[in-house]
Amino acid sequence: MLTSFMATKKKRTTRRIQNRLPQTDQSPIALARAIDQRISSRLYAVSAGRCQFKGCNKDVTVHSLTRQAATLGEKAHIVAFKEDGPRGRQGRRPKDVNDISNLMLLCRECHRLIDTRPQDYPRELLERFKHEHEERIRRATAIGPERRSAIALFQAPIRGQRVAISEDQAVSALFEQQRYPANKPVTIDLNGLVGASEDDAFLAQACGQIDRAVERLFAQGGDLEAVGHLSVFAIGPIPLLAYLGGRLSNKVPITLFQRHRDSEDWTWKSNGPVVSYQVECLQDRGRGSPVALVVALSGDVKLDALPEPIRAASTVYRISLGGAVPNPTFLRRPQDLDGFKCALFEALGTISLAHGLVEEIDLFPAVPAPIAVLCGRERLPKVHPRFRVYDYDAAAGGFNYKLTVQ
């Protein structure tokens, strides 16, 4: 009994002495495991309630099946709570591991992934995921209501092959232009015509579908009338793109987008050389002759590539890249579309001065999709000649007439 009493007394004395010692060796890192509710709420806010793992973006505020509201997100540490945890020894540890700068909002699946495979998801990568997600949310929420835009997706089969446009990529490209979708995109889908030969019947059916779709798009009382802006994402044969452009009213502001081959997305670039255009006359058959316009931008079109009747009788003008070789990737910035509009008007003005009133122009385009749309849209029906649009097909012997934009 005496021995037990003395041992207990010694422990109490030791604890009192330790409590009086200065705490100079205490770790500066806060180790409270619970995350403050204010931090948790702020994390949900800056992430817009979505998983911050790049490419996931899952809504963690509702149950995926029942759609009932719930807080299903997990607050994941970038640098682990403990040093021997995932990324716990990567770089200097934060003073407070529960600070919002060290937390990501993740769905359960992504949280498990980054913590079971920390070698694949190091600290620097996760910090970049977090920053990019929060910056995207910041930009999206900074866009005012006047920056809404209706979205039209036009997809038509090319050489018998289906094409598709990603709605997610379209919306992302829209955000980069400081706009956001007014509603679900309107899709003009001609893929149902795949397999049909691109003959007159095919083109007539395709043009009819475009007519009906555009009529619905511009209907009185529709989204476009309320929003007052349209964003167009289009892939298809060049003649149909030009026809689509001719049906799009120039009374409503329109932004056209280009699918870029290098990044395989629709987001306009902010860098790159300024594109210049030049207008020239390749062949002059005199006033009163038929007129042809070659637009050689994504590929070169030489005079001898044109149909023999055109070479024999027509005056031929050409729009080409100034000081650059035609190539499919030249179009990178939206400003380069504006430059093309100026070049097109210069060409049409030159033709008018040299030839007077011309009823129609044979158009030979080798251009990216948005420029094909512009060719149709920027033509003023009461001022400019009709465009007889040709398309190049090596298997069909070169350029062949397809349709008229009027």
Write the layout of secondary structure elements.
Blueprint: H1 2-20, H2 37-46, E1 74-77, E2 103-106, H3 108-116, H4 123-142, E3 148-155, H5 167-176, E4 180-181, E5 186-189, H6 200-217, H7 223-227, E6 230-235, H8 238-247, E7 254-257, E8 277-283, E9 291-296, H9 308-313, E10 315-321, H10 334-355, E11 360-366, H11 369-377, E12 386-393, E13 398-405
Rg from alpha-carbon coordinates? 31 Å
Task: Report the major sheet.
Answer: 6 strands, mixed
Poorly predicted ranges (pLDDT <50, ≥5 residues)?
13-31
The average pLDDT value, as a whole number, equals 89
The share of residues in helices is: 25-40%
The backbone outline, from C-alpha atoms, is: elongated
What oligomeric state do these chains adopt? Answer: single chain
Strand content: 15-25%
Query: How many discrete structural domains?
Result: 3
Structural class: alpha/beta
Number of strands: 13
The strands making up the biggest β-sheet line up spatially as 8-10-9-11-12-13
Instruction: Work out the helix count.
Output: 11
First and last CA, distance: 111 Å
N-to-C order of helices and strands: HHEEHHEHEEHHEHEEEHEHEHEE
